[in-house]
Amino acid sequence: MIYFNCDYTEGAHPKIMEKLLSTNLEQTPGYGEDGYCSRAKELILQACDAPGAQVYFLVGGTQVNFTIIRSALRAHQGVISPVTGHINVHETGAVEATGHKILEVPCGVEGKLSAGQVEEIAAAHFAGSMPPIHMVQPKMVYISQPTENGAIYSKAELEALHAACQKWGLYLFADGARMGYGLSSREADFTLKDMARLCDAFTIGGTKCGALFGEAAVLTNPELQRDFGYAIKQNGGMLAKGRLLGLQFLTLFEDGLYTRICEEANRLAYEIADACKENGFTEYAPSPTNQQFFIFPDDILKKLEEKYHFSFWEKVDECRTAVRICTSWATTEENARALMEDIRAVGVKG
Amino acid sequence: MIYFNCDYTEGAHPKIMEKLLSTNLEQTPGYGEDGYCSRAKELILQACDAPGAQVYFLVGGTQVNFTIIRSALRAHQGVISPVTGHINVHETGAVEATGHKILEVPCGVEGKLSAGQVEEIAAAHFAGSMPPIHMVQPKMVYISQPTENGAIYSKAELEALHAACQKWGLYLFADGARMGYGLSSREADFTLKDMARLCDAFTIGGTKCGALFGEAAVLTNPELQRDFGYAIKQNGGMLAKGRLLGLQFLTLFEDGLYTRICEEANRLAYEIADACKENGFTEYAPSPTNQQFFIFPDDILKKLEEKYHFSFWEKVDECRTAVRICTSWATTEENARALMEDIRAVGVKG
Amino acid sequence: MIYFNCDYTEGAHPKIMEKLLSTNLEQTPGYGEDGYCSRAKELILQACDAPGAQVYFLVGGTQVNFTIIRSALRAHQGVISPVTGHINVHETGAVEATGHKILEVPCGVEGKLSAGQVEEIAAAHFAGSMPPIHMVQPKMVYISQPTENGAIYSKAELEALHAACQKWGLYLFADGARMGYGLSSREADFTLKDMARLCDAFTIGGTKCGALFGEAAVLTNPELQRDFGYAIKQNGGMLAKGRLLGLQFLTLFEDGLYTRICEEANRLAYEIADACKENGFTEYAPSPTNQQFFIFPDDILKKLEEKYHFSFWEKVDECRTAVRICTSWATTEENARALMEDIRAVGVKG
Amino acid sequence: MIYFNCDYTEGAHPKIMEKLLSTNLEQTPGYGEDGYCSRAKELILQACDAPGAQVYFLVGGTQVNFTIIRSALRAHQGVISPVTGHINVHETGAVEATGHKILEVPCGVEGKLSAGQVEEIAAAHFAGSMPPIHMVQPKMVYISQPTENGAIYSKAELEALHAACQKWGLYLFADGARMGYGLSSREADFTLKDMARLCDAFTIGGTKCGALFGEAAVLTNPELQRDFGYAIKQNGGMLAKGRLLGLQFLTLFEDGLYTRICEEANRLAYEIADACKENGFTEYAPSPTNQQFFIFPDDILKKLEEKYHFSFWEKVDECRTAVRICTSWATTEENARALMEDIRAVGVKG
Description:
4 copies of one chain form a homotetramer.
Chain A: E1 2-3, H1 14-22, H2 35-48, E2 54-58, H3 61-72, E3 77-82, H4 86-89, H5 94-97, E4 102-105, H6 115-126, E5 137-144, H7 155-168, E6 171-175, H8 179-183, H9 192-198, E7 201-205, E8 215-219, H10 222-225, H11 228-234, H12 243-253, H13 257-278, E9 282-285, E10 291-297, H14 298-304, E11 308-309, E12 311-317, E13 320-326, H15 333-346
Parallel strand pairs in A: 1-11, 3-4, 3-5, 5-6, 6-7
Antiparallel strand pairs in A: 2-8, 7-8, 9-10, 10-13, 12-13
């Protein structure tokens, strides 16, 4: 079986494995107080052009999300999220488990939130006809860049969100679990510098972008930096052998490996998408990144699934299903070609 | 100004005040361990015909809701609620503050949840294509009887909800902050016995139905009874002078006062509603209880509000607003008549 | 049976009952937005001579404690408390249930915390040899005035605690569930003005000092005032008929009733204590307030308990037990005399 | 500098690195649903001789502790722990942050809890003179095996704790962050089978015993197994590339590597301890495992610290300090010999 179901089916990029191996028996202080972590943080800050920001390394995605949110909010405050946001649907209520309501907002198939939606919620709360203290106070906006459905926010959209957040005193937090695929998308007009300039907090995902595990949290707002180390420890995100995180991000950021390997994954994803479209299959959601969403008739899907794993996304109707086809830094040209061949073979056109 | 904005603008029914006064200097044990509480619990159990149930008295509505929910659920479990449910919109995220997600479900203007909706959510979780552990596990269904918009569930609807909950291992919890107005509605086909038979937990509201304050929690499911006393204390719901709650519910339940005074409030509400309809004003949501929802042109509303307080409900369009007109056990015939007169005076018909 | 076990066995002072009765059918806005609450807050602020402070009314003692603590602390912060502090032993872990560790400190029989102890804990954390982020950060100091064992902090002690808290950036919070008995103690050298000047937050208890229920929270530190209304609502402390709290505190504070009735209770307590001492019974803890703690041989205690209820405090040895004897604003001269008589009758002297 | 300060200064045992490398580009399902995890779990269950138990892999120690505790307890329940227990002092209040009080119990320098202490607390709560609902209900006992001070519980002590827990309905949970060093101690009379037989839950630490990271949770009590997968995900302990945990534990358990490498670390620790004792330095706490605790005059310590890192433990008096000297699976004979030489050189004897 060949896995196209997600972007975490392999280990780490070989350069990362080499780095871990070559430093394996060195002795360093624990908890990320080592030189590799310091160096990796420097590189990320340089890439973000954000000298006042702070970088922290945590182990996983759910963890980094709820740790940032819990640390930023007071008990009566909540976080606005598109209804399909990862925190709202696929983290087992981790945010609520720390005491905070997710104020969910309807969104389209792209999974994006607009500045207008943020304005509307904030205005209803802070300038509405009801006494606000009976309702959760909006204090943060959560977006994913790219979204769960592969879409990316443009620089203009980010700027509009930023402006809305500034106006109403909200933090803007971008979950970048797949940031590498976003940054290297052919449609991207934003950079890490823009993320750092426009967000109070965002993450740069390692797990899905070449590392064994690990997420870098970039906190640009000094309010959010305060005592964040306690939050990491309390929420179980502090790795005893913290250098493992430093070593991985160091490798990813020292010569552009991070975006280079993601760009390659995007390229294969685009080719697969083209193969789908050319052969008569309908796009479920447009995506300029490594996740592609297509609708297949169930009988054709069944045939493809004899050889490939995809992610079930939605039952579209009685006889058709939307699936996610995912490439990653580890996807081989060979496997991608094989899939394209087979899509052509089952295709309804030509 | 005359208040029709809510059902908690006065103190308590005179019989309750008398009872509190006549027992004021008696010495009793604290924390509800007194004879008045015992007697009040007995009366409620008799009214519910539920000898295996347990009755507990708490001070307020938000409190009793989150205490029951927190006590019933494990950390990864959530509660299904209609989107307009009181716990979802007007309790400042109290349920989430105890760690639990509210799985909100769209609902119509009546604010009701259907058995079909419950089935759908439960099936998607327990019998779906996604591994359930990444999502909050539904474990409880929250409804309000009557709803926030004044509607009531019929016995058949409650039975269907009960069946769906039994099928999927969910607790059914009914928030009865206005139970008295529901029980005495001209459209009610359910009794407290039905509530006790079909719900795992429900409340009988005192605050809005004649008491100074106080909500009775009736827990019929033994699982929910276990250690509930600890939960009351931990969540701040245990009154030192617990007898104040016992004395009030005793008064309300010893000769049918509870439903008698609510029935009278409903009668006045129906008359006001008729006056609205007869004079050309549109119903916003149909209600067979003490809360009535009508849409007024803004200029007419402004005029009425020189003399009366209503609750703002929604801006319907540019020039019309929906308001809640609320009667209560304390509404006088005189005030209700005055309002009807004035509605006739501003009315668009005859 | 005559109850001396606690100070909440009766209802409310007759003047309070009168006030509630005479205003019972008035219509007012809910949730404490009424004129009685405003007036009561003014009176309390005047008594505190603290124009920048804010007063809030909550229903109960456990509730007001955890609401203030939760609202003040971030997730990684804890509250220092003497080991016998009410929050540490008799509130069912309510503070921990909101996510915060109580950093318990050993204390003597008086239940007091010293400035030196606070300094020691703070220095160990902020200036110690261990990296602080692995430990809970102390951020608040909790004391009770009077303590659970009836003792009071002198003005000098409060000033020292205040200085230690200022030095280390800690909030000082005083639980005044029995504040009235403290203020009117013959040994008190502090006033409400001192409390307001030296504490960031403190409470003025109604429940045990003449009211049916209700605690006034006085927040002098603007940081703690911010959004406190949300906290009250979220934690179930907001009474729909909020005026009930205003009316009670208004009555207690408009002509000095609060301390006058507590002073009388103290007087009776001192007389009972004298009777105990004169008749050979040993003091368990010295107390200048309404709670007295004495050790009785078990056979004598058994005899007294045929007629009186006391609170069990501790088994001192095989054949002796410490009990709490409590007077209150409601204790009658007659009952106090009867008890003294009986103590004399069983006494070992005279 | 040579690090003897803790047992997590290096990466992983070379066999683990080999395993990770050789499987790096294999495709497997995520979240621990792969064959390596299954096989590792089987091996652990075999070692425990506990077919009804379930094994789960989490990333870190703080995380696995609070996840087990939170998942096991209801909101009003607490966990008994020796005052020096890791959860009580070095996890930033993670347990309280999930809502649960730690009922701390005094303990000696070994950091052990006795069955008698458990009995006393349970009896005071469940069979005491105070109504229990005002206090946190004890429901779990937390111990560490070995303790934070290197001591181990004997089989008899574990059996006594087990009996006390059974008697009072408490769960027994053993934190085995350094389990390997305990199992291979020259004083150990217990095995993994005993742990599985006597505990409801325990962990087998990877991080400090040869792995890069990872803790295995062994839940023998079916009540604790229920829905534990949700708890792992919600609390951030579910690794996307879960096989990394499986691969490591597989390597540690397939041919006894786990205890073999820990035994060697113990051997070097004993030799270092002997060198300390023979040269006149006082033991701070007796330890039969890889952590040794010795008291050094400050001037001598300063000299040693020019070359070696130790962990500060306690200031014993004006001029002496207790430190922890830690060996691990990675400690080289060469470094250990060097330290012993230097201890001899500064020693006060011979």
